[in-house]
Specification:
Cofactor: pyridoxal 5'-phosphate
Family: Belongs to the class-I pyridoxal-phosphate-dependent aminotransferase family.
Largest sheet: 7 strands, mixed
Strand order of the largest sheet: 2-8-7-6-5-3-4
EC number: 2.6.1.-
Number of helices: 13
Helix content: 40-55%
Keywords: Aminotransferase, Pyridoxal phosphate, Transferase
Distance between the termini: 53 Å
Bound molecules: pyridoxal-5'-phosphate
GO molecular function, one term: transaminase activity
Length: 404
């Protein structure tokens, strides 16, 4: 039999064009070094280090015992969709009905569903950059054309209304962003979102995916939703989920709120790909919402403290230029100061080289900004213990001092 690796036509163009998630690739390398006995501190993960709160775990155990082991409606149990609609009212003052809500296997699937339902081949999708790694790849899967619009560090990496307007063409179908943002931690204020919404009001063919998965991890102001502006609400797909706020990454529950036509399309898409998400995870998600957001607030306070700690430690490292993240659990410094410097004959050409150097020399795993559309930056996740953060930053400082 012919070796499959020789048959280059075996795999589709679609999958060949797709990049492997760099965050996952870096985490894999970190794990390999750890398996060889090295004491690697992994700051590449995009997930809370906290356990899922006990009351949520208990609800999942009960769901199994109560026999919730069957397929669920594709868009999710009706009571969960109602609880999500209630959450939108409680937290965001947004009116939705269960028919507007689709529960999916993580917010990642929610985004993929929406993009696949809206984007035709050749449609342009404006992605606020720096952006979460999967946005661009999901757009490519839908055969859309990603158009990056880049916010400046000096403006907290936030895209301005003028930048947005300049990027819109007659082919623009969708605009995507996250706030609080992965990877920059920037958070749009309500006024900033309003100014962007006023631009979008002029282009009725353009839809908006507002990724609000880090809603509860906001240290400074109030969370603002793009869907709160009535004049564009019908064109906004709000994405949220349980992974970050409730420390439920492994449970895989995300959701959208959208106009019922878009929600019905996402339901149809999902029905042919995965059906409804796990019945037990849905019961756990329902319990999470019933329990309010006290545990989310407790975790947010811990991230807030760690953010301050990391900022303080980074102040002491020459050449790291950063904004002050207001949410999520990442910090995204510009490290271009080190480009062109060398150690033991090896020159740091870019952020990826710097990440590799820090992984092998400092045994600290972080992620290169290339994957997020910002090749001069690196992303640190501070969703880990204070002790580990202190030790990681100490090692990084020591290693960087070797570069000449
Ligand atoms: C901005 C953003 N959106 C969506 C997701 C996906 O979340 P989920 O675990 O619910 O698929 C992530 C996960 O890292 C993220 O950072």
């Amino acid at each position: 039999m012919q070796d499959i690796e020789e048959v280059s036509s075996t795999l589709s163009d679609r999958i060949t064009a797709l990049s492997e998630s760099q965050t996952i690739a870096m985490a894999k390398k970190g794990r390999e070094l750890a398996a060889q006995g090295h004491d690697v501190i992994n700051l590449s993960f995009g997930e809370p280090d906290f356990q899922t709160p006990q009351y949520i775990k208990d609800a999942a155990k009960k769901a199994i015992d109560d026999g919730f082991t069957f397929y669920t409606p594709v868009a999710g149990y009706p009571e969960l969709r109602q609880a999500i609609a209630d959450k939108f009212k409680r937290d965001n003052n947004l009116d939705y009905k269960p028919e507007n809500i689709v529960v999916s296997t993580g917010a990642k699937q929610s985004i993929a569903n929406a993009v696949l339902c809206l984007v035709n081949p050749g449609d342009e999708v404006i992605i606020f950059s720096p952006y979460w790694v999967s946005y661009e790849e999901i757009v490519k899967l839908a055969e859309g054309t990603p158009v990056q619009v880049t916010g400046n560090l000096e403006n907290d990496f936030k895209v301005t209304p003028a930048q947005l307007e300049a990027a819109i063409t007659s082919n623009t179908k969708l605009v995507m962003y996250s706030s609080p943002c992965n990877p920059t931690g920037s958070v749009f204020t309500k006024d900033e979102l309003y100014a962007l919404a006023k631009v979008l009001e002029k282009y009725p063919q353009v839809h908006i995916i507002a990724d609000e998965i880090y809603e509860y991890i906001n240290f400074e102001g109030e969370h603002a939703s793009m869907a709160s502006f009535d004049f564009i609400k019908d064109r906004v797909i709000t994405v949220n989920g349980f992974s970050k706020g409730y420390a439920m990454t492994g449970w895989r529950v995300g959701y959208i709120a959208a106009h019922k036509t878009i929600a019905a399309a996402c339901d149809k898409m999902q029905s042919q790909i995965t059906s409804g998400t796990c019945s037990i995870a849905q019961k756990a998600a329902f319990a999470a919402l019933q329990g309010g957001n006290a545990s989310a607030i407790e975790m947010r306070d811990a991230y807030h403290r760690r953010r301050n700690l990391v900022l303080e430690l980074m102040n002491d490292i020459p050449g790291f230029k950063t904004n002050v993240p207001e949410g999520a659990f990442y910090i995204f410094p510009d490290v271009s100061y080190y480009f062109g410097m060398s150690y033991e004959g090896k020159t740091i050409q870019n952020a990826l080289d710097l990440c590799m150097f820090l992984l092998t020399d400092a045994l600290v795993a972080i992620v290169s900004g290339e994957a997020f559309g910002a090749p001069q930056c690196v992303r640190f996740s501070y969703a880990t213990s204070d002790d580990k953060l202190v030790e990681a930053l100490r090692r990084i400082k020591e290693s960087l001092a070797k570069l000449q």
